[in-house]
Design brief:
Helix content is about 30%, strand content about 25%. The strands form 3 sheets. A 3-stranded parallel β-sheet has the order 1-2-8, covered by helices on one side. The chain is elongated. It is built from 4 helices and 8 strands. The chain has 2 domains: about 80 residues, FAD/NAD(P)-binding domain (3-Layer(bba) Sandwich); about 55 residues, no CATH class. By secondary structure, the protein is of the alpha/beta class. α1 packs parallel to α4.
Length: about 140
């Protein structure tokens, strides 16, 4: 059975945080998109935890920052301690950002928040969970 051609503006490979953010940006700009993912479900484990100020600024410009600010554990300093002795203490408060902290948000929460934002936009589930093959002219 031949595959029907699908006319889309953007094919996104991977439903992790970057792919889901790109889907939100496509939706915000009125682009048609399809997201393909090999995993059967969203990640239950965090491979990333920290969201830095510049990323929060980009999320703000995209209109998705509020849920991340609500979910975040805000970190403004880090201490390195070994055997009860403080080896280093670093403050983190960039003055040039409206977000003077590192937002600690587990990856599974980040993915969930981005999926929820797509749903709030009324976007259909354009995520297909399967493998694909690419030739010089097509992706199937």
């Amino acid at each position: 059975m031949p595959n029907a051609a699908i006319d889309i503006d953007v094919l996104i490979v991977g439903a992790g945080p970057v792919g889901l953010f790109l889907a939100n940006e496509c939706a915000r700009r009125g682009l048609s998109w399809r997201l393909v993912e090999a995993r059967r479900a969203q990640s239950e484990h965090s491979k990333a935890l920290a969201i830095f100020p510049r990323t929060l600024e980009i999320f703000d410009m995209a209109g998705v920052v509020e849920p991340f600010l609500e979910a975040a554990n805000r970190v403004t300093s880090v201490a390195v301690v070994a055997h009860g002795r403080t080896l280093a203490h670093m403050r983190f408060a960039p003055e040039e950002s409206p977000y003077p902290f590192i937002a600690m948000v587990p990856q599974d929460v980040t993915e969930r928040l981005l999926v929820e934002q797509l749903q709030r936009r009324g976007e259909p589930s354009n995520t297909k969970r399967h493998s694909f093959q690419q030739s010089s002219m097509t992706i199937t």
